[in-house]
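Design job #97: recover the sequence.
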């Protein structure tokens, strides 16, 4: 039998090992239908309506929330959003674990908050998930990736295209340079 260097055996793949969905299959199916109709649509449904739907499915959501079209939220029952938050077009919140978004946070277009992935080192490809927290005042620039087990500190900025796989201290600006080295600097 041939085994790849990462020892992934896709014929033995069990898609849900290590994933606690947090809701019944019926609730999840109803959410997916709701998500397709009202969140993934390009139609600009009112944010207040989307907030009401999120709350209906168990999300904790503050006031003054803007949710643009084509936003993909995986499990609303594992989502907490503070006050005055803006979530841009095509943002993807893959919250296998809790995603907590503080007050006055901006999540720009096409950003991906990825709360989990598979462990390629284990042949069964079990999940290795973790929570994500964006503290008050954060700005996640367009097309950023934020991985599991990351806390982005108060008033920090992740500039366009940044890849964040470790927690960020408060009041930092993170820039991804063309040579793929991350630059951390104090805000001016």
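Job complete. Output follows.
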């Amino acid at each position: 039998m041939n085994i790849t260097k990462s020892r992934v055996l896709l014929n033995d793949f069990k898609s849900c090992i290590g994933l606690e969905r947090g809701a019944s299959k019926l609730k999840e199916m109803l959410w997916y239908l709701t998500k397709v109709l009202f969140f993934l649509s390009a139609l600009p449904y009112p944010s207040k309506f989307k907030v009401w739907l999120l709350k209906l499915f168990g999300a904790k959501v503050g006031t003054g929330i803007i949710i643009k079209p084509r936003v993909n939220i995986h499990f609303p029952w594992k989502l907490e959003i503070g006050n005055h938050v803006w979530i841009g077009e095509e943002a993807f919140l893959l919250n296998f674990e809790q995603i907590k978004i503080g007050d006055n946070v901006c999540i720009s277009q096409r950003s991906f908050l990825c709360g989990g992935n598979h462990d390629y080192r284990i042949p069964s490809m079990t999940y290795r998930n973790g929570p994500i927290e964006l503290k008050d005042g954060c700005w996640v620039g367009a097309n950023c990736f934020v991985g599991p087990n990351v806390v982005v500190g108060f008033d920090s900025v992740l500039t366009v295209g940044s890849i964040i796989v470790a927690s960020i201290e408060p009041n930092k600006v993170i820039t991804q340079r063309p040579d793929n080295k991350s630059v951390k600097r104090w805000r001016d």
